[in-house]
Each structure stands twice: as structure tokens, then as C-alpha cells.
Amino acid sequence: MLTLILKRILMALPVLFLVATLSFCLIRVVPGGPFDADKNLPDEIVANLKAKYNLDKPLPEQYVLYMQRLGRGDLGVSYKYVSRTVNDILLDAFPVSLVLGGLALALAVLVGVPLGAVAALGRGRWQDTLAMFLSTFGISVPGFVIGALFIYVFGIQLRILPVGLWESPWHMILPAITLAFSPAAYLARLTRASALEIVQKDWVRTAQAKGLSGSATVLKHIMRNSLVPVITVLGPLTAILITGSFVVEYIYAIPGMGRFFITAVMNRDYDLILGTTLIFAVLLIMANTFVDIAYQILDPRMRISD
């Protein structure tokens, strides 16, 4: 297990270098710059701003300067939030997105996986029909519609939950449920499909023929093996949820990373775009490493390949 973790860490370094390099090049290839939106600025002021942030230098020199800062852990400065560095912005926004994404991920797993298992074990019965209806509804309806519905019902009509900001545990309930709605529905369908495939395996029928109890067959054989594809999607899903959802954060006025990433792209805030991209890449690598570890716990045969 330790060897696997060390391998992933060594592989992560060139991956992060490549992500930083490609992102640096791509955001500068796109037409427009961080000061183009300010049409009223005189040319002299724009030139001074570019000189201040080293944007007047040749692109290779800008790249070298950025990579030197990155090697020191300095993600740069924001061109729009003048008094704040990218490190400061992410240190404030990331914990909010981490808590929101963690709650949403936990809800998605705790609801989606059992729902899919119930649907598979009750295939063709009312449990299956109800579970698939709920999962189809969750996948089909956009997040902003779910959020608006929750705000109207629980905030305006019933007045039992706050509908905005991020000030107490009560403020976390509606955003977490909204963010978890679609992933839970997707996990339910994936779990159902995987469980139905496992049920047809010969070794499951053999276990049942040998007199293994129904609960033991479900837990030790069916669910344990059907969770492998579910674990696979949890890697990127974890990174996506933790780095924030712009729609949910916008609806509930949550100061998370999603909002800063979208505004950074709109404003061509180069360093902030690169900072959020690198954070997403790090989280994705970490999540996939945990997925590889979970593979080996669920199915020891996979240790041979590593």
C-alpha cells in the first residue's frame, strides 16, 4: 500500500507540471486580457498595470517567473481583487467548498448507493420503480431548479431553513442537499446496474446453493463487488464537488471556490484561474489515489497489477 502511495506521489509531480504549463499557455492564447474590460483606462495606465504584473514581458519569461513563484508555493496575485493574493482567496474559499462538497458527497453516497441496491434486489417490483423514478428525476432536473424549489418550499413557505449565506450549520442543509441531488441519482443508477450484473454471476448462485444466508450473500458478494464501478466515479466526483459548484454557490450566496473560478475566467484573472485549476488537479489526484486504495481493499486481486 505504501508503495502504491509513493508511486502516485511521484506520478503527480509531472502531471501537475504539465497541468500548470498547459493552463498557462491556454489562458494566454485566448483573446482578451485582464484589463481589456476597463475601456475607460488610458493606455498609459494599462501599460503601467501590465508592467506591474510582468505582463509586458515576453511569454517565455512570464512562464519562467510564474514557475519560479509556483515552486515557492506562491500562486500569484489577483488582478481584480487588488488587495488580495491568490493564496489568500483560496485559503478563504476552499474550506467553504470543502465542507459543502464533503457534505454533498456523503449525502450522495449514503442515499444513492442504498437506493440503487434496493432497486436491484427488488427488480421489477415497486421498490425498483420508485427508485428509478427518483433517480431519473434527480438526473433530469437541473440544479438551479432543485435549489429554487427547496428555497420556495423550506425557506418561503415553511420558513424552517435559511436560504442563503454561510453562517451556521443550518445554512449548510439546503445547499448540501441541492448539490448532492444529481450525484445521488447517478450513483443510484450505477449501483443498480452493477448489482444486477453481479447477481447473474455463477459464484453468487453457488454461494446461495451452499446455504449462505441472503444478507451475507448481499453484503459479502453482491454489494462488495458491485461497488467497484461506484468507487471509480467517486474519484472525479469528489474533486468536482469539493472544488465547488458555481450554480449552488450562486443560488445560496456561498463564498466558495466555484464563484471565484467563474469570475476569474470572465475577468481573465490569470493567476486566479491557474490557482483554482491546480487545486482541482491536486484534489483529483488525491481522490484517484484513494480510489486505487479502495480497489485493493474491495478486490485484493487488483494488487497484482500494482
Which features characterize this protein?
306 residues, single chain, mainly alpha, 0% strand, 12 helices, MetI-like fold, globular, 2 domains
Query: How is the main sheet built?
Result: none
CATH architectural grouping of the largest domain: Orthogonal Bundle
Distance between the termini: 9 Å
Uncertain segments: none
Write down how many β-strands occur, each being a DSSP E stretch of 2 or more residues: 0
Mean pLDDT reading: 82
Question: In words, what does this structure look like?
Answer:
This protein has 306 residues and is an all-alpha fold. The protein has helices spanning 2-29, 43-52, 59-71, 86-121, 126-140, 143-157, 169-199, 202-209, 214-242, 246-251, 257-267, 270-298. Helix 4 runs antiparallel to helix 5 (126-140), helix 4 packs across helix 7 (169-199) and helix 11 crosses helix 12 (270-298). The protein is globular. The mean pLDDT is 82.
Per-chain topology:
Blueprint: H1 2-29, H2 43-52, H3 59-71, H4 86-121, H5 126-140, H6 143-157, H7 169-199, H8 202-209, H9 214-242, H10 246-251, H11 257-267, H12 270-298
Helix pairs in contact: 1-12, 4-5, 4-7, 4-9, 5-7, 6-7, 7-9, 9-12, 11-12
